[in-house]
């Protein structure tokens, strides 16, 4: 049953990206946390989602734009982290993040394929003036998008498990290095997204305040 629930949630995440209901379920931090909860590791799932979220603050899935699909990738990485029984948390989180960043490119490609399929769906039943024709097209396109989301999530979970089981035992740089890479990458990408919120000139005070708060946290640990 847990695999069925995982697949169904993957379908919901894929559908939420642009089709329906666009309720922010497909944001990495949300998708990762819920996926982690489904497999019994909500904290780890939320951490993977939060790390991935920092890479996507400046990406807006608007119109026909091409973009990595981070929601299904976050869910897949959270599933993989739990099902791989990862032993080294910091290293495994870094490996899961690296996998998600690669997998989201592939899932983004599947979105482009789905758009092409939708073109055929539009022409499937001839005239749009018949009763219920538009609704049938919408429902079919949404069903296909749901199936796509479930498929890429579960395929990603399987690939992620294999990736973690192979790489986790042979990683020899230590958890401290892995944790440092995660923090540096997340901080850098989050800082780069400042242009979305008005740019440096408008938000530099908040940026400095956040930097000082982070440094203070490190000092008092």
Q: How would the blueprint of this fold be written?
A:
Layout: H1 2-16, H2 28-38, H3 42-54, H4 70-83, H5 89-122, H6 133-167, H7 175-192, H8 200-220
Helix pairs in contact: 1-4, 1-6, 2-3, 2-4, 3-4, 3-5, 4-5, 4-6, 5-6, 5-7
Please compute the radius of gyration using only Cα atoms: 19 Å
Helix segment count?
A: 8
Distance between the termini: 41 Å
Compressed to H and E, one letter per element, the order equals HHHHHHHH
General form: globular
What multimeric state do the chains show?
Answer: single chain
Instruction: Profile the largest sheet.
Output: none
Binned strand content: under 5%
Derived from helix and strand composition plus strand pairing, the structural class reads mainly alpha
Helix content: over 70%
Q: Would you tell me the overall average pLDDT?
A: 80
Overall number of domains: 1
Taking pLDDT < 50 over at least 5 consecutive residues as the criterion, the unreliable ranges are none
Structure description:
The chain has 221 residues and is mainly alpha-helical. It has one domain. It is globular. The termini are far apart.
Keywords:
single chain; about 220 residues; mainly alpha; 8 helices; about 75% helix; about 0% strand
